[in-house]
Amino acid sequence: MSHSKWAGKRRERFREKQGGEKIAAKEAHDAVGEYKAGWHDPENATIRFDFGLSEQVVRDISAIKNEPEWMTEIRVKAYHHFENRPMPTWGNMSMLNNIDFDKICYFLRSGEGTEDDWDDVPEDIRNTFDKLGIPEAEQKWLSGVTAQYESEAVYHSIREDLEQQGVIFLDMDSGLREYPEIVKKWFCSVVPYQDNKFSALNTAVWSGGSFIYVPKGVHVEMPVQAYFRINAKNMGQFERTLIIADEGSSIHYVEGCTAPTYSTDSLHSAVVELIALPGSHIRYSTVQNWSTNVYNLVTKRGIAHKNAKIEWVDGNIGSRLTMKYPAVILKGEGSHAEVISVAYSGKGQHQDAGAKIHHLASNTTSKILSKSISKDGGRGSYRGLVTVSPKAENCKLNVVCDALILDENSRSDTYPTMEVANPTARCEHEASVSKVSDEQLFYLMSRGHAEEEALAMIVNGFFEPFTRELPMEYAVELNKLMALEMEGSIG
Amino acid sequence: MTVGFKRDYYTAESGDLMASDIPILGIRELHAGIDETPILRGINLEIPSGEIHAIMGRNGSGKTTTANIIMGHPDFEVSEGYVELEGENLLEMEPWERARAGVFLSFQYPQAVPGLQVGNFLRKSVAAIRGEDAAKGSGFRKQLKQAMEELDLAPSFLGRYVNDGFSGGEKKRFEILQLMLLRPKLAILDETDSGLDIDGIRTVAKGINAVIRGSESGALIITHYSRILEHIQPDKVHVLIKGRIVKTGGPELALELEERGYDWLEEDQTEESSDEAENTA
Question: Could you give the C-alpha distances from A462 to A148, A470, B163, B174, in angstroms and in order?
Fold first, then answer.
C-alpha cells in the first residue's frame, strides 16, 4: 500500500535509476514548453540579407552603416581569419560542428533607426519590450537603456544629468559615428579578432551593442541596461560592446537577452571589451535567457589598470550551448577581479562556462565563484584558467566551484587550471558536487512546502551567493525563472 | 467522511465536551516497514487534546519510524492500520498537506539548506501553514521576537542559512522556534533532548510547555532518557520495544526505566512473541 504520491514517484525514480528506462511524464516535460519569452513577432524587416557569409556580406554591412575605411578593413581581415581558423577542438565539439554558417542571416534591420521615445518604436517591437518589462524597469531603476532587436538598437536613452556630466552611453553603431577616435583607440585592444574563431566572426559582422565612456571621477549610481532580443528565425546576432571607465569612475552595466523558440538554430556571438583605467570600477552583470535553439558563443574580457576593479556577474539560464569565460587581465598593480557565475543546464543544454584571470602585476587579487545546476540530462561544465606571471608578487587568488546535480541523467564537469609562476602567490581552490537529497526535501515539505516549492528553495539557496550580487529586480526575476524551470521537475 | 463528522461536533452547542472525545492523534494497529522489512508491528496510541505523551525505547525499537510515518516520509510503507489527526486520515496526505493540517515534526537531524535564510524560511513556512496574513505585519514580528528571546537566539540568527553550520544546540532550538511559530495541533519531538546540555534542555522544555500546556494541541515526545521528562511532565509514557508498545504508564514509568533499563520489559516481550508464534503455528 502506497501512502503517498510522493513515495510513488520516488519509487519510480528509483526504478529509473536501476533500469535506465525513461518515464513518460518526464519525456512530456519539455523545457522548451516552459520558456516564457518564446513568442515571436511578425517579421517586418526593412533590410534583410540572404543566408550565408562572404567578403561581400561583410563589405555590405560596413557600407550600409557608412563606416570609416579602417573599420571596413578590420572587418575584412577578421572575416578571412574566421574562414581560415579551425573550430575549437575543446568544449562541446559535436554541438559546435552542428552550426551551419550558411543557414544564418548575418544582418537584419527591423526599424527605421534608433528612437529615444518608446512611442516612436514600431508597435510590434514596442509590445515585445513591454512584455519583457523593459520600459517599466527603465522608469524605476535605470540610468539608461539600449534595446537591440535583431542587428540594431531600436531604442536608446540616457538620463539627462549623466549626459551633462559627460557620460557617453550609445549603441555601438552610433558610438562609431559620433566618437570614431575613441572607438579606433580601443576597438580590438582587449579582444583582438585573432583571439578565437568567434571573436573573428564577431569583428567581421558586428552590429549593435553598447558604447560607454565614463569620464574621470564620475560615478554612475544606477545601472545602465542593454536588452538584446532576437526575433527572426536562423538569425545571427553579433553585438559588440566597448566600455571605458576613466580614472576613478564607476559604472554598473546590466544586460539581458531572450529569443523566440524555433526548431531551427540561431547564433549569438558577441564580443565585450572593458577598459578600467586607474582606480575605476566596472561591474558587468548578465542574465542570459536565450531560448534553447540559440548557440551562445561569446568572448568577454576586461583590462584592469592600477587599483582598478572589474567584476563579471554572469548568469546563464538559457541557450542550447553556451561557451563563455569572462576574463580579466590584471595589468596594473593592486587591481582586483571577480567573476561570479551561475549556470543552469536543462534538457538538451550544455553550459560550458567559467572564468579566466591573468595576474600580470603585483598585489593583484582575484576571486572566482562558479555555481552550476544540471537537470533532465543537462550538462554543466566549469572551465577556468588563472595565471600568475613571474614578475607579479604577492598575488591572492581564490577559486570556488560548486555543482548541484538534480538527477542521475545529468552531468557536471570541472576543468580548473592554475598556472602560478611566482612563489609568493596565495592560491585557494575549492570544488564541490552535491545532490538534492530526499531528506532535505522531506524536511522542507514537513514545513508546509509542496515538493516543487521545496526544490525551488534549495535551488534558489544554492544560487543565493550569485543573486545577492544582482540588483534586486534582477534577483527576483532570476528566482522566478528558476522556479519555472523547477516546475514538474521531480519525477 | 470523518472530516464532516468532526466539523459537526465542533459546531454543536456542546462542542467542547464532544470534541474532546476525538483524540488529536489516533493510531490503530499500525504495521509498517521499509523495503519489506517490518519495523512497526501493531502500534496503538491515542493522544487526547492537551496531553503530552512520551515514547521511550532503545535504538532501533521503531521510535523514529513512528515519527516519520506520522509526518509522511516516503521511505516507509504502511501495510496495515491507520493514523488520524482529529479523526482525519493522515495516510492519504502528502507531507506538506499533513503540515498544513497541523502536524509538526521536530527532527532528530534537521537538514541544512545553504543559501536559504532563516527569517525568510520562517515567514514562508508560517504563510504556508497558518496563511499569508499570519506571516505579515507587526503581529508576526512580535511573535518572532518574543519566541527568539525565550530561546536565547540573537536577532542575527535570522540572517543565517537554515541549519547550515549550526551547532547541535542551535539546531534543536531552531526546531523549537519553528514549533512556537507554526503552532501545530500535534507536535512530535524526535530526540529533541539529544546533544543538549542541562540549560539547553531547560530552554527547549520551556518552549514546548509554552506551546502545548493549556492549549488544545497534543505532543508526542520521543526520547532515550528521562532527563527532558523532568521538565515536561508527560501525561503518559509508552515503552516501545521491537515495534510494539509493551507498556504504558504515568511519568513514574520514565523514572523506573531510568533505574531498571529495558531488559525486564524485553523479557516480557520475548515471551509474548513466542506465545504468539505458538498461536499462529
Answer: 32, 15, 14, 21
Residue in A with minimal Cα distance to B31: A1
For residue A284, CA distances in Å to A226, A251, B17, B192 come to 11, 8, 67, 48
Interchain pair B110, A443: CB under 8 A: yes
Q: Which residue has the higher pLDDT, A387 or A1?
A: A387
Interface touch B111/A440, C-beta < 8 Å: yes
Domain that holds residue B183: 2-280
Q: Is B35 on the interface with A (CB under 8 A)?
A: no
Please give the full DSSP string across B44-63, using - where no structure is assigned.
EEEE-TT-EEEEE--TTSSH
Q: Where are the domains of chain A?
A: 40-324, 436-491
- Interchain contact, A464 vs B116, CB within 8 Å: yes
The CA-based angle A244-A248-A249, given to 5 degrees, is 50
> For B71, which of A438, A446, A460 is closest by C-beta distance?
A446
The strand pairing partners of B192, in sequence order, are none
Please answer whether residues B178 and B125 qualify as being in contact, where contact means their C-beta atoms are separated by less than 8 angstroms.
yes
Q: What is the CATH number of the domain that holds B226?
A: 3.40.50.300
* Nearest residue to A102 (alpha-carbon basis) of A227, A345, A336, A265: A265
Is A324 within 8 Å of A296 (Cβ atoms)? yes
Q: Which residues contact A464 (CB under 8 A, 6 or more apart)?
A: B114, B115, B116, B161
Let me know: does B224 contact B196? Beta carbons within 8 Å. Answer: no
Q: What is the pLDDT of residues A446-480, one digit of tens each?
A: 999 999 899 999 999 998 888 888 877 777 777 77
Contact residues on chain B for A463, CB-CB shorter than 8 A:
115
Q: Is B12 on the interface with A (CB under 8 A)?
A: no
| DSSP-assigned letters across all residues of A333-398 | TT-EEEEEEEEEE-TT-EEEEEEEEEE-STT-EEEEEEEEEE-TT-EEEEEEEEEE-TT--S-EEE
Q: How many domains does chain B have?
A: 1
A448, A453, A454: residue with CB nearest B129: A448
> B115 vs A3: CB contact, 8 Å cut-off?
no
Question: What is the C-alpha end-to-end distance of chain B, expressed in Å?
Answer: 39
Q: Pairing relation of β-strands A426-435 and A396-405?
A: parallel
**B195 Cα distance to chain centroid:** 18
Contacts for B118 with CB less than 8 Å, ≥ 6 apart: B157, B158, B159, B160, B161, B162, B174
Beta partners for A370? A341, A401
Q: Which of A4, A9, A13, A433 to mutate to test the interface with B (most CBs of B within 10 A)?
A: A4
Provide the shortest C-alpha distance from residue B117 to chain A (in Å): 8
**Rounded-to-integer distance, Cα A398 and Cα A377, Å:** 30
Is A462 close to B114, i.e. CB distance below 8 A? yes
Set of cell numbers at residue A191: 579582444
Q: Give the C-alpha separation, B263 to B44, whole Å.
A: 22
User: Could you give the ipTM of this predicted complex?
Assistant: 0.90
A384 within 8 A of A356, measured Cβ to Cβ:
yes
- A-chain CB neighbours of B129 within 8 Å are 447-448
pLDDT, position B270 = 54
Cell reading at A90: 575543446
Closest C-alpha to A353, from A337, A367, A342:
A342
Cα distances (Å, whole numbers) of residue B235 to B54, B60, B179, B210, B241: 8, 24, 20, 16, 20
CA distance, residue A57 to nearest chain B CA (Å) = 50
Q: What pLDDT shows up at residue A458?
A: 94
Dump pLDDT digits (tens) for B106-137: 999 999 999 999 999 999 999 999 999 999 88
The two beta strands, B88-89 and B77-85, are: antiparallel
Q: How confident is the model at residue B3 (pLDDT cuts 50, 70, 90)?
A: very low
